[in-house]
Design brief:
Layout: E1 2-7, E2 13-19, E3 26-34, H1 37-55, H2 66-74, E4 76-81, H3 83-95, H4 103-114, H5 119-129, H6 136-165, E5 172-181, E6 205-212, E7 218-225, H7 234-244, E8 251-254, H8 261-269, E9 273-278, H9 285-292, E10 301-306, E11 310-316, H10 318-340, E12 358-361, E13 365-368, H11 370-376, E14 382-387, H12 393-401, H13 404-416, H14 427-453, H15 460-467, E15 471-476, E16 483-488, H16 492-501
Parallel strand pairs: 5-8, 8-9
Antiparallel strand pairs: 1-2, 2-3, 4-15, 5-6, 6-7, 9-14, 10-11, 11-14, 12-13, 15-16
Helix pairs in contact: 3-14, 4-14, 6-14
Length: 503
């Protein structure tokens, strides 16, 4: 930022503060106007003061010349990233994670949020930017303690804070499962090869079950063997969560991947209400016929009554239909290319994805079953929901629509927090690694919530990137041996973030 004196046609001079941080000149503030030279000079001084306060610059007196400036620079004892502590460190404390008194827990959570890396590289970050010297074995020993004593405390603190955010009510929970792979070949009791949602079928993996509230605030998690059927993970997590906090009636929402007859029976027998994504093409023939006879138009829905108080709600979306058709066409074209190259064999004849459109001709010829492909088109745009609730059709559809937020939670955890691949081999450290990522995601969600409440256009990622550019300087004064420090704001976006969160 800088000031300028703008002379108007009337002869009046306006003293203005201008910003060029975005590549364009922008008027930030008009200090005042006057035609009197003395008053203009005073306005200039006010502009200089305003800019210094706004940018947080050190007001240093180097009237002694170059030598004095060099002596000052030689006495800088520390330059550290301060914005991370001011922004996400403050949110960490507001959530209540400060109840866990180990300093290392906070440092590891903030590092996972702002500088996600291996534990070895994390020690390098802590040494360079946090002035915290330690070897990687110290972190491993702490992770053993975290697994043994603090996992439940982390989840309890997250739950209690979420209850405050939601006004003390918890009636709906969302559950989903993802896979996390390891860069190893050997399996053990936990890490097993299985169906990988990331296409890493050759790698041992674990299943991560995550339970979240409305708006995807994290509530609880659990890890399972990599070859476990994901449908068998839901009830243990939900039941343990409900009993731990003495919760009453809950509505459970999950996608069709967790749909099984056993899950539905257990949910009903234990008094849960549920909304589950339905596999409408797997319904009995008479139900399929009812669905296709509905002839729904865009935005319309209908309900089909099933035994034991369960409704099958069907909705139609023209946009979803267009997307389904495009996906099928891409799948068909991929099969055609593979057939042309001779890459498909008898082993490819299965019901995985678009392989269901393949058929064998004779003993070895593979071709595409175009009749089956055309028959599938009548399902485009249709979506089903199974529910035993008393909610209306629209309420069921709307409630299920929030499930995408838990999918976003997994994307944030995998991409932004880099929760995988996991390099630990000891189970207790794997669990501690997940616990750190869980706490980091909770801080991320709180940052997202506060940015929304403050009506900021910043994304959590952008706010963190700005915070990482805010440094503090610590200087030892020669004459008094006193140490002083100052946080430096050199750009408008840094100061704006500081003002937004009251640094």
């Amino acid at each position: 930022m800088f000031f300028r004196q703008k002379k108007n046609r009337s002869g009046v001079v306006s003293v203005q503060v201008i910003d060029k941080s975005g590549g364009k000149y922008r008027l930030v503030k008009t200090i005042g106007s006057s035609s009197d030279a003395a008053e203009v000079a005073e306005l200039v001084k006010q502009a200089e003061t305003w800019i210094k306060e706004r940018q947080g610059q050190l007001n240093l007196d180097f009237s002694g010349g170059r030598l004095q400036a060099e002596q000052f620079l030689e006495n800088i004892t520390q330059i550290r990233v301060q914005g991370v502590e001011l922004l996400v460190g403050s949110l960490f404390e507001q959530i209540g994670f400060g109840q866990i008194k180990d300093v290392l827990f906070k440092r590891l959570v903030l590092a996972r949020l702002c500088y996600p890396a291996s534990k070895l590289r994390t020690t390098d970050y802590l040494a360079k930017y946090e002035y915290l010297e330690m070897d990687v074995q110290s972190i491993y020993r702490y992770m053993d303690k975290l697994h043994r004593k603090q996992k439940e405390a982390v989840q309890r603190i997250s739950f209690e804070h979420t209850m405050q955010v939601l006004g003390g009510e918890m009636s709906i929970v969302f559950y989903d499962v993802t896979t996390l792979y390891f860069e190893i070949e050997q399996e053990d009791e936990l890490r097993k090869a299985g169906f990988s949602k990331e296409g890493k079928h050759q790698h041992p993996q674990i299943l991560l079950g995550l339970l979240v509230s409305v708006d995807a605030y994290p509530l609880a998690y659990e890890i399972f063997e990599g070859n476990k059927f994901e449908g068998h993970t839901m009830l243990p997590v939900i039941e343990a969560f409900k009993q731990q906090y003495g919760l009453g009636k809950l509505v459970v929402i999950a996608d069709s991947g967790l749909l099984s007859k056993q899950n539905i029976e257990q949910l009903q027998s234990q008094g849960y209400e549920f909304i589950l994504g339905a596999r409408i093409k797997n319904e009995p023939a008479h139900i399929q016929q009812q669905i296709l006879s509905l002839r729904l138009k865009n935005g319309e829905s209908a309900a089909i009554e099933k035994p034991e108080g369960i409704r099958l709600v069907i909705s139609y979306s023209a946009a979803r239909g267009k997307k389904d058709a495009a996906n099928q066409q891409r799948g068909l074209q991929k099969l055609e290319r593979q057939i042309k190259k001779g890459k498909l064999t008898k082993a490819n004849i299965n019901n995985r994805g678009y392989n269901k459109y393949l058929k064998m001709e004779g003993e070895i010829n593979i071709s595409i079953d175009h009749e089956k492909f055309e028959a599938d088109k009548k399902w485009d745009g249709l979506k089903g929901y199974l529910s035993n609730t008393t909610l209306t059709k629209n309420e069921i559809i709307e409630s299920y629509g929030h499930l995408w937020k838990i999918e976003k939670a997994f994307r944030v955890s995998k991409n932004d927090l880099k929760i995988r691949p996991i390099y630990h081999r000891v189970q207790r450290r794997i669990e501690a690694h997940i616990c750190i990522a869980f706490a980091a995601y909770k801080v991320y969600k709180e940052l997202e919530r506060q940015l929304k409440d403050k009506k900021s256009t910043l994304s959590p990622e952008k706010a963190i990137e700005i915070a990482k550019t805010i440094f503090s300087v610590q200087v030892k004064l020669v004459e008094s041996d006193e140490t002083i420090s100052k946080t430096i704001y050199t750009r408008a976006e840094q100061k704006n973030l500081a003002d937004l969160f009251g640094f």
